[in-house]
Write a structure and sequence with these properties.
15-stranded mixed beta sheet, mainly beta, about 600 residues
Length: about 600
């Protein structure tokens, strides 16, 4: 056992023998480490106390020890450093550590332990009373738990530089033994709920199974569990899981409305088909739909709306593949978590209303299989109370919107990156507008060919308006809309902070019956490496205003004599131009 006093840190890369390890000890002075805080309520204090490090040869090559009762990250391999930080390695349910107890004694044959963050008192109690947690000790003089020895496994490299520490709040820890419950046809409970190693105890079940006495039973046992007509859920029949839990089909509507006293819906694990609508609306106490309706495959309309306390829909509707009319996910003021929901839904036969969810801050992993919306797509008025949220790789397989698409009024959305990348056609108008904090628009809509369904049909219009308003500044549209060839109207105006259009719109050549307007944006707007195919004809008025001294030369393809009765205006930092002197506006 090495005892480290307050003047140094120890970094060890574990090898296959103690001799190898001895040659890899590196020392770093305390001055290289940042100040630490015992808790969020106290001022930073220097690292103090002793750390016992017990070297054990059973850990994997490349393992690195974590020292003391607070986070110690490693400076060296950048990728490993970031991964270690990102994986929340104090989560009791995620990461495995070599368990190194005094004198190499351990009650866990697999030498594994995990760490959970607890309150001050919970940590003290666990450290003092849990003899199985030999990796921890309560240090009464410092009022903190100390982790004697922890090693993070499999970071993938054999050596690191010196260690430094980060403050962590709260800074108290305990350990929990890894028990590994099992679950056939489902997902086991975590270690904290697992009574004995290897015991079968399920937290939730796969589609086609239901939870009964912590085990997953097959829904196929219910061969005649069809509810004819509408099923209205009340407090009494929701509580009776022996009734609702066995229903495999509802031939009419399933109505869950104004249901008081129910925070989480249970009892629909085996429901595979709804012949009518699913309505989940105005439930005053409903807080979660996590893992809800895991076996449901089809419904006519799905309406999840106006549930004032609904916060979470994680892994919801995992098997739902088709909605044969409308889908409404709207007016749920607290809804913020939708992780991995509607993962199998491929088609909506009418419209998708995804709107007015004020707390929404992410749609990552949502609607990942959705490829077709036959009518209108509304993605609007979301995240009004979520400052600085981003849309990243959203709707990755959506290829077709049959009518208009309203991507608008998401007030606090700041970034759109890599989104709508499979979308090829919008049947009518595409609105990207009224998002006053949007400051980055990158790599999105790059397969959209035209705002029309097929060649020969009248195009819809294209609007980018009212983005990045004061105090927002510096909006850039980068690498987007590069397959778009035409629109009825092309309007990119009144974007106060729009200062750069780069590597975008490189297939756009003409409007079909309408205007082309890039005006009233930032006075410093620049257009770079964009419109490479050459703008040729504009059927309506043409108005371009840039902050550059001249208009990029790719606009020299423009037919200035087309639509002679319409307004024609070019404005640059050097002056204004019309049809008669258009060529003077072009860069050499």
């Amino acid at each position: 056992v090495f005892l480290l006093e307050t003047q140094s840190f120890l970094a060890v890369t574990v090898g296959s023998s103690r001799a190898e390890m001895a040659g890899r000890v590196e020392m770093a002075p305390l001055s290289d480490a940042p100040m630490l805080s015992e808790s969020s309520d106290e001022a930073p204090v220097p690292f103090k106390g002793k750390t016992a490090l017990l070297i054990v040869s059973t850990c994997l090559v490349g393992s690195v020890f974590i020292l003391s009762g607070r986070r110690s990250l490693l400076r060296g391999d950048r990728e490993a450093f970031e991964r270690l930080d990102a994986e929340a390695h104090f989560d009791c349910h995620k990461n495995h550590f070599c368990k190194l107890g005094p004198n190499d004694q351990t009650t866990d044959a697999q030498r594994t332990v995990q760490i959970a963050v607890l309150s001050h008192d919970a940590c003290k109690n666990a450290c003092s009373t849990n003899s199985g947690c030999s990796a921890t000790e309560w240090r009464s003089s410092e009022q903190r738990c100390e982790l004697h020895t922890m090693a993070v496994q499999a970071l993938g490299t054999e050596s690191y530089g010196y260690m430094h520490t980060d403050p962590l709040s709260p800074a108290e820890f305990t350990c929990c033994l890894k028990r590994d419950c099992s679950c056939q046809h489902g997902h086991p409970v975590g270690d904290a709920q697992c009574p004995e190693k290897g015991q079968e105890k399920c937290e939730r079940c796969d589609p086609g199974y239901y939870l009964h006495s912590h085990m997953c039973k097959a829904c196929s046992a219910f061969t005649n569990s069809v509810h004819s007509g509408n099923l209205v859920v009340t407090q009494s029949n929701h509580a009776d899981l022996t009734v609702t839990g066995k229903v495999t089909e509802v031939t009419g509507d399933l109505i869950i409305e104004n249901l008081a006293g129910v925070a989480k819906l249970d009892g629909f694990s085996c429901l595979a088909k709804i012949g009518g609508d699913l309505l989940i609306s105005n439930n005053p106490d409903l807080e979660g739909l996590d893992y809800a309706f895991p076996s449901l495959e089809t419904a006519v309309n799905v309406r999840i709306q106006q549930n004032p306390k609904l916060k979470s829909m994680i892994h919801s509707f995992a098997a739902l593949s088709t909605v044969s009319d409308n889908m409404l996910l709207q007016n749920n003021d607290l809804l913020s978590h939708l992780d991995d929901s509607f993962g199998s839904l491929s088609s909506i036969a009418d419209s998708l209303y995804f709107q007015n969810n004020a707390a929404l801050s992410s749609v990552d992993g949502v609607f990942v299989s959705l490829s077709n919306i036959e009518d209108t797509f509304y993605f609007q008025n979301n995240g009004d109370e979520s400052a600085g949220w981003k849309l990243t790789n959203a709707f990755p397989n959506l290829a077709k919107v049959g009518d208009s698409m309203f991507f608008q009024n998401n007030e606090h959305l700041t970034e759109v990156t890599g989104s709508f990348q499979a979308l090829t056609h919008v049947g009518d108008t595409l609105y990207v507008q009224n998002m006053e904090h949007l400051a980055k628009f990158t790599g999105s809509f790059n397969k959209l060919k035209a705002t029309s369904l097929a060649p020969g049909e009248t195009s819809g219009s294209f609007y980018i308006r009212n983005l990045c308003e004061s105090p927002c500044s510096g909006l850039e549209i980068q690498g987007s809309f590069n397959s778009m060839m035409t629109a009825d109207k092309f309007i990119m105006s009144s974007n106060e902070g729009l200062r750069l259009i780069t590597s975008s719109f490189n297939a756009f050549t003409h409007t079909e019956g309408g205007h082309f307007d890039i005006s009233t944006n930032s006075a410093s707007l620049a257009i770079e490496d964009s419109f490479a195919a050459g703008l040729q004809t504009v059927d309506g008025y043409l108005k371009i205003e840039v902050g550059m001294s001249c208009l990029p030369k790719q606009f020299n393809t423009l037919n200035v004599n087309h639509a002679p009765g319409e307004e024609f205006s070019i404005g640059t930092a050097a002056g204004t131009y019309d049809r008669s002197n258009f060529t003077e506006a072009l860069c050499p």
